[in-house]
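Please decode residue identities from the backbone states below.
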């Protein structure tokens, strides 16, 4: 009995010692581990980003901003009455109650209920003081102009990462600090406090673009009208400063709203002007002429026999647009009337090697160097694969594919007296304090043709827009347009030959021809109602040029005055009146502060008068009712940005 008691005592002593040692280790040696384990039951670390940098146009107008929003999360294991919680959350956030309940029923320690909702809704959730539910502020990317320049700007994902456009290309500059949100909860899962910690990178930067927001809006409006009028699949407009390479406008239609990008198709997201390629058609004849003139092989007045409208090369027959039957044409008339056979004859005179060398110097077959993802180098087959028929068709832009950016950059080299510039979209990058950390400088790539050749080409391209030229509908009365039409058959979907009903209509030009300030390319893809570029693309070029004159009226004052008046020049005070008359009596007054216009007085006007007065208005008209105008918002005399909304309410006379 005594031995048994001694044995029990020693067993008890050993067990007690083990328990004591265990308690000692847990309480004193592993206190940090236990603290972390305890903390993990009542807190969550969530990776978030601070606000992204802003994106501005060239005049400081906001194109992309970040606003404060509310994100709501939950700890499902801590929520006992999931049905009641789901009901309250769905009501406060206007969500489907079944969807919320499914999230709360997951066997996870943490779930998102919503991300980046209006902060007012977040406040409603906070007031409910729901067990296991928390709210914290999170920045949300917004595009205040909705779809304006959508394919240029791109968009960001829910976690603030750039996914398309400049948002992706410059993500390392724009993205905010990566931080971890730590939400502490009490035993019931109710939020107690929250902190940010672990800054992993420097503050975000902002972009200042070369784009002009107002001109971008007007160009988008015009290309949309053209696509709808001619029942086309899509259209694009690029405007570029030839002396610097700055892209002023890059418009697409159809477009999308990057605020709701997930509701649109991927096909609308890409920047077609950089990514897509097409056969340029007759716009390419200009580069053939550049090679012929620069090599001294052809002069503008040299004549070529155009075979009365039909030329057989190997097993192919080359014809003329609209069945023209040209006989003898000079080189400048070949360009003016856009003769395919005349171009082929000049190409034979130049030869494959010299022609190929010149078009590669203009940048075809290579990327332009712009900092934008997915840019295409175009399609230019190696010279060794060229046969006689390839040389002939390449003369008028068949068998070669280019991007819109390549084409306008190459034409800009002619406008810039033969010097090829590198195009760019980002003018400056600034840090959070507004200090400039990067500034783009115009970059000369190479001289592609001589100064003399460039001057000769300019004069030849002006003849294209003369009264009997193919580009006449792009012309203006107050300065010369140098440009070229292009109506290209699209390759057949079968891969053999060309379609007889699908075309790409384009017009490209620069102005004023003697001192080019802008180069513009208009592309209308697959128009159904009409396909000749002289009637599809050229008029769009003209309308947008008129918009440019309105926006930059002081730049063009001498051209407008000189081109519309005979005899003595008017006094400077008469200029505004004259300019309005020239520009189809548009009475919208553009202020000296760029991008601003003064709202006119619509009070008392009839519906017919309002519609007439607002035609081609540089604002978005919202006309409601009938009768006569009783109210308008903004009020008369208010200065607003071009592209702003103007609401006009009409009521019948009592």
């Amino acid at each position: 009995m005594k031995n048994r008691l001694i044995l029990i005592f020693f067993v008890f002593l050993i067990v007690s010692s083990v328990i004591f040692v265990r308690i000692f280790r847990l309480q004193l040696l592993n206190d940090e581990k236990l603290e972390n384990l305890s903390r993990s039951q009542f807190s969550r670390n969530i990776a978030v980003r601070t606000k992204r940098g802003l994106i501005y146009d060239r005049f400081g107008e906001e194109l992309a901003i970040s606003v404060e929003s509310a994100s709501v999360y939950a700890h499902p294991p801590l929520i006992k009455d999931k049905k009641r919680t789901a009901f309250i959350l769905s009501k406060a956030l206007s969500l489907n109650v079944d969807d919320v309940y499914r999230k709360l029923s997951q066997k996870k320690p943490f779930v998102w209920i919503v991300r980046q909702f209006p902060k007012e809704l977040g406040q409603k959730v906070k007031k409910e003081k729901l067990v296991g539910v928390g709210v914290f502020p999170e920045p949300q990317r917004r595009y205040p102009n909705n779809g304006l320049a959508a394919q240029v700007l791109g968009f960001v994902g829910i976690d603030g990462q750039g996914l398309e456009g400049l948002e992706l290309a410059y993500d390392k500059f724009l993205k905010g600090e990566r931080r971890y949100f730590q939400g502490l909860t009490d035993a019931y899962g109710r939020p107690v406090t929250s902190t940010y910690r672990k800054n992993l990178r420097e503050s975000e930067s902002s972009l200042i673009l070369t784009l002009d927001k107002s001109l971008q809006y007007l160009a988008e409006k015009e290309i949309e009208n053209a696509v709808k009028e001619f029942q086309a699949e899509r259209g694009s407009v690029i405007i570029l400063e030839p002396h610097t390479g700055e892209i002023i406008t890059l418009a697409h239609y159809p477009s999308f709203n990057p605020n709701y990008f997930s509701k649109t198709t991927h096909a609308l997201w890409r920047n077609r002007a950089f990514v897509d390629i097409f056969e340029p058609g007759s716009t390419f004849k200009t580069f053939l002429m550049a090679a012929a003139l620069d090599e001294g092989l052809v002069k503008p007045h040299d004549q070529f026999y155009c075979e009365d409208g039909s030329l057989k090369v190997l097993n192919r027959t080359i014809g003329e647009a609209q069945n023209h039957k040209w006989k003898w044409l000079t080189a400048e008339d070949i360009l003016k009337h856009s003769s395919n056979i005349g171009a082929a004859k000049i190409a034979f005179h130049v030869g494959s090697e010299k022609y190929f060398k010149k078009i590669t110097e203009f940048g075809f077959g290579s990327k332009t160097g712009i900092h934008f993802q997915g840019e295409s180098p175009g399609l230019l087959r190696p010279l060794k694969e060229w046969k006689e028929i390839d040389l002939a068709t390449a003369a008028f832009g068949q068998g070669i594919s280019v991007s819109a950016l390549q084409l306008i950059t190459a034409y800009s080299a002619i406008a810039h007296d033969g010097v090829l510039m590198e195009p760019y979209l980002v003018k400056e990058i600034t840090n959070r304090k507004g200090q400039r950390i990067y500034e783009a400088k115009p970059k000369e790539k190479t001289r592609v043709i001589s100064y003399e050749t460039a001057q000769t080409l300019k004069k030849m391209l002006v003849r294209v827009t003369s009264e009997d030229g193919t580009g006449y509908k792009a012309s203006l009365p107050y300065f010369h347009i140098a440009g070229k039409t292009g109506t290209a058959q699209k390759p057949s979907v079968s891969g053999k030959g060309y379609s007889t009903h699908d075309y790409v209509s384009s017009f490209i030009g620069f102005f004023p021809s003697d001192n080019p300030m802008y180069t513009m390319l208009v592309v209308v893809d697959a128009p159904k109602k009409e396909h000749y570029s002289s009637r599809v693309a050229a008029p769009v070029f003209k309308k947008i040029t008129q918009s440019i004159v309105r926006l930059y009226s002081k730049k063009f004052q001498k051209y407008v005055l000189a081109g519309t008046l005979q005899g003595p020049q008017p006094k400077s005070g008469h200029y505004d009146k004259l300019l309005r008359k020239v520009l189809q009596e548009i009475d919208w007054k553009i202020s000296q502060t760029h991008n601003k216009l003064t709202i006119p007085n619509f009070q008392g006007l009839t519906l017919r008068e309002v519609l007439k007065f607002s035609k081609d208005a540089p604002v978005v008209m919202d006309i409601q009712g009938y009768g006569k105008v009783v109210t308008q918002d903004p009020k008369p005399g208010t200065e607003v940005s071009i592209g702003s909304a103007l609401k006009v309410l009409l009521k019948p006379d009592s």
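Observation: The longest helix spans residues 2-29.
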